[in-house]
């Protein structure tokens, strides 16, 4: 596509230069630029970039929708092609400036890290590693440059793997010579090559140890309240990463490196064997756990897609699967593992209950309209807790073929610490609304007898005062289901004191009404 800025009606040389580059590089039609530049806010972004010294970068992105987007910040997670323009100095760019002299500019790929890897591997490393380019350099400088180039290549290689969720192990300097080494005696070895292998083994050990020490409990320790999908995703990612590491360690070059270390009687050979053994053990564990967690994913997805008021029937089968995992998995049958999973299931149920109750609006709505939802949520929470106790009591029945039963000997509070607080909060909300319903009935009560009119007025006054007190909740902006906040409970305790006073006053009014009755018949009436 040969679109150029000459097809646009622009009168600013600076804008014409940028438009021409963007249209050619991003292969956009002129009307895309016209549509973007016709917006006053976008036009002002250009003028500010040219004139303000504190604005040094201009980014123009071709979005997935086909439009052009202008911004000053570098995209943190680029998903589309873009062009960048960076001032060479902080001086304003005049209208008659030669843009090529005052700007650094270029295009950014949708995957800049892959672009950087390609540049390092195909341009930088061949250029700086070529000994013919070092003819006039001192040997010390040549070796130093080569070492730094290789370190850069290794760093970019590792970072690119981390961005994809993989641990990539960089090969040592001279890796291309490893497979050419024969089976001669150790005295004939290239000592520099053995040293390079030993150095990279140290780096690999740190990389692999960082992977192995990661634990799925960390999001819980960080207070993030993750769902069980986080647990499943953790083990899937861990399994894939460990498999990637395992395949790298079994590569022919790496096996040749291990042979060299062994024949050279290197002190790093045992370390290499240890990390390989640890990777195999961790991979076996991850594969076993992934296999047993897979059925749970389908149940969790079904639970997630079900309305909360209908999910009660799915909780017992879910716990049944958890029990089967405990009884059959060789690696997931430890308290530390199962407690994490149960806590995350509790978090998921709490989140579903919150979405169902809409805590921001529930106290602003009519009590008669929402109390049914609160009662339903409380009933489901209680049923889950009872179902847990039932499954825990019959856990031994899940162990078949003479397998020794293993009970959940940990205290339930380790699983239900947050769940219990949330359940209590929902119960408090239910009690508050049921109390409100009872006091709302006072509006329609009329007392007979000689003082009936006066007593009825007193009852109505109690009703009015209660409504004013309850109105406090609807005026608050807090989340009444947030157990970490005490604002709701503070208001609730004040309400309890008021309710106790209202109860005494209503009781006094009723006693006065009975005292005013002339006989048993009027009391019944």
TrEMBL record:
Entry's Gene Ontology cellular component terms: axonemal dynein complex
Domain of life: Eukaryota
A molecular function GO annotation: dynein light intermediate chain binding
Domain Dynein heavy chain tail: from-to ranges: 194-523
Signal peptide: none
Biological processes annotated in GO: microtubule-based movement
Protein name in the entry: Dynein heavy chain tail domain-containing protein
């Amino acid at each position: 596509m040969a679109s150029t800025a000459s097809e646009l009606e622009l009168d600013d040389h600076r804008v014409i230069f940028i438009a021409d580059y963007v249209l050619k590089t991003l292969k956009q039609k002129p009307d895309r630029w016209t549509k973007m530049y016709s917006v006053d806010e976008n036009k002002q972004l250009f003028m500010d970039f040219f004139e303000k010294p504190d604005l040094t970068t201009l980014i123009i992105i071709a979005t997935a929708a086909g439009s052009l987007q202008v911004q000053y910040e570098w995209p943190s997670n680029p998903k589309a092609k873009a062009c960048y323009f960076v001032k060479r100095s902080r001086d304003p760019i005049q209208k008659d400036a030669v843009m090529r002299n005052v700007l650094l500019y270029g295009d950014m790929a949708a995957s800049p890290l892959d672009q950087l890897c390609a540049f390092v591997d195909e341009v930088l490393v061949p250029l700086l590693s070529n000994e013919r380019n070092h003819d006039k350099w001192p040997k010390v400088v040549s070796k130093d440059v080569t070492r730094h180039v290789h370190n850069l290549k290794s760093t970019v290689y590792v970072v690119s793997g981390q961005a994809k969720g993989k641990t990539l192990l960089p090969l040592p300097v001279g890796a291309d010579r490893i497979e050419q080494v024969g089976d001669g005696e150790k005295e004939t070895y290239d000592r520099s090559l053995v040293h390079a292998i030993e150095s990279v083994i140290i780096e690999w050990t740190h990389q692999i140890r960082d992977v192995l020490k990661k634990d799925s409990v960390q999001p819980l320790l960080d207070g993030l309240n993750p769902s069980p999908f986080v647990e499943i995703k953790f083990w899937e990612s861990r399994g894939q990463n460990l498999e990637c590491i395992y395949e790298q360690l079994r590569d022919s070059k790496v096996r040749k490196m291990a042979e060299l270390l062994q024949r050279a009687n290197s002190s790093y050979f045992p370390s290499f064997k240890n990390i390989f053994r640890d990777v195999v053990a961790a991979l076996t564990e991850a594969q076993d756990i992934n296999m047993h967690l897979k059925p749970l994913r389908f149940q969790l997805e079904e639970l997630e897609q079900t309305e909360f008021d209908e999910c009660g029937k799915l909780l017992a089968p879910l716990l049944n699967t958890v029990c089967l995992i405990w009884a059959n998995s060789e690696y997931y049958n430890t308290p530390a593992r199962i407690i994490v999973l149960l806590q995350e299931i509790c978090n998921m149920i709490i989140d579903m209950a919150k979405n169902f109750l809409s805590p921001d609006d529930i106290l602003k709505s009519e009590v008669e309209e929402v109390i049914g939802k609160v009662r339903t949520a409380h009933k489901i929470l209680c049923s889950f807790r009872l179902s847990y106790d039932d499954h825990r009591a019959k856990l031994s029945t899940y162990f078949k073929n003479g397998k020794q039963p293993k009970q959940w000997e940990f205290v339930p509070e380790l699983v239900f610490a947050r769940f219990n607080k949330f359940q209590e909060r929902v119960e408090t909300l239910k009690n508050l609304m049921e109390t409100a319903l009872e006091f709302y009935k006072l509006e329609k009560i009329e007392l007979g007898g000689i003082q009936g009119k006066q007593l009825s007025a007193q009852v109505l006054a109690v009703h009015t005062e209660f409504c004013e007190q309850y109105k406090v909740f609807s005026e608050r902006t807090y989340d009444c289901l947030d157990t970490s906040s005490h604002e709701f409970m503070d208001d609730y305790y004040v309400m309890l004191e008021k309710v106790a006073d209202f109860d005494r006053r209503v009781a006094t009014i009723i006693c006065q009404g009975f005292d005013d009755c002339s006989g048993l018949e009027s009391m019944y009436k």
